[in-house]
Amino acid sequence: LKRAFLRNNLDTSLIDSDKLIALGANLSEPYLGLSENQYEIILNDVTTIIHGASCAKPGMPLTAYESSTILGTANLLLFSAQKEFHFISSIDACVNSSWENVPEGILPLKASITTCDGFGLSKLAIETIITNTFDYLQLEQVSIVRVGQITSHTETGVWDPNEWVPMLLGIAGLSGRMPTFDANLDWIP
To answer: Is 120 in contact with 62 (CB distance < 8 Å)?
Structure first.
């Protein structure tokens, strides 16, 4: 964790906070990859889950996301019974739909509304799992937020160089050209 903070020019004193407990986890494993004792402690202490961890593997099929992403989210959802659960999804879940704007409601489970790669399909599958289990698990509160591109820290400007906007800007800098877009690009300042 400290190496990641240093690499991204972030304040490492935040790591020393008594409020922070860093645990290595694997959401696709029993007990989320934690010891049974660690699992029980956080099960009793945690009140809200914000799940935004997702591995983006451009061009990979849905099967590449089954274990780590889909099963992992399902396990985290089971852990979250009687807690607030917030899932950070992606506009990729419905990017090929005929809607003018990204819908705010429940999406139909149709592969045709998403991207044809595993990332968008996995987001749509996870959204469907969450909405179908909401009543069954009697979850306190569930929200799904569909976002596009998000940057990181407002002071350091750290942005994963493997994401599409930094890659596009890097290529533009090397080639001296910018692509043209037929669609409007909305930016949050």
So the answer is: no
Question: Chain centroid to CA 83: how far?
Answer: 18
Which residues, at least 6 apart from 112, have a Cβ–Cβ distance to it below 8 Å?
A: 96
Domains in the chain with CATH codes: 2-155 (3.40.50.720), 156-183 (no CATH)
How would you classify the pairing of strands 84-90 and 48-51? Answer: parallel
**Cα–Cα distance list, 47 to 2, 30, 50 (Å):** 26, 20, 10
- Is the pLDDT confidence value at 21 over 90? no
- What are the structure tokens assigned to 94, written together? 């419905």
Backbone angles phi, psi at 163, to 5 degrees: -85, 165
pLDDT digits (tens, 9 = 90+) for 157-178: 677 777 767 777 778 778 887 7
Query: Diameter of the chain by CA atoms?
Result: 55
